[in-house]
Amino acid sequence: MNHSKCEQQFSLLNKELLELHGQLKKKLKTINFLQNEKVKQVQCSLNETDIKNIQYQVQLEQLNIKYQEENQRLQIAVELQQLEKEKMDKKQIEMENKISYLQMKQVETKEQHHLEMQFVNK
């Protein structure tokens, strides 16, 4: 995978993360609004324990959304790390190929020098 493709993929993943973040924020606002409305509607008939239970449910849903968002961030981070690893692996292979090429050239040069010396000595 070339560098440009990695950058494109990184850009797309970053854009996707921002979109997901925006969607989660909207969902959280909607949930909070609906739950607040629900609490207002039934608050008169509920006792204190019921109200606390609803508050805990709201907190749990908020935490769930927060953890979903963090999980998505982590998944994207893992994908980015994989892309970086692939890029580094490719660079390492390129360097190994260059080293092999230079070693081969060095051997050719030594052989050529040896042949030239034999020719000069004759």
From TrEMBL:
Coiled-coil features, chain-numbered ranges: 53-91
Keywords attached to this entry: Coiled coil
Keyword Coiled coil: yes
UniProt protein name: Hypothetical_protein
Taxonomic source organism: Hexamita inflata
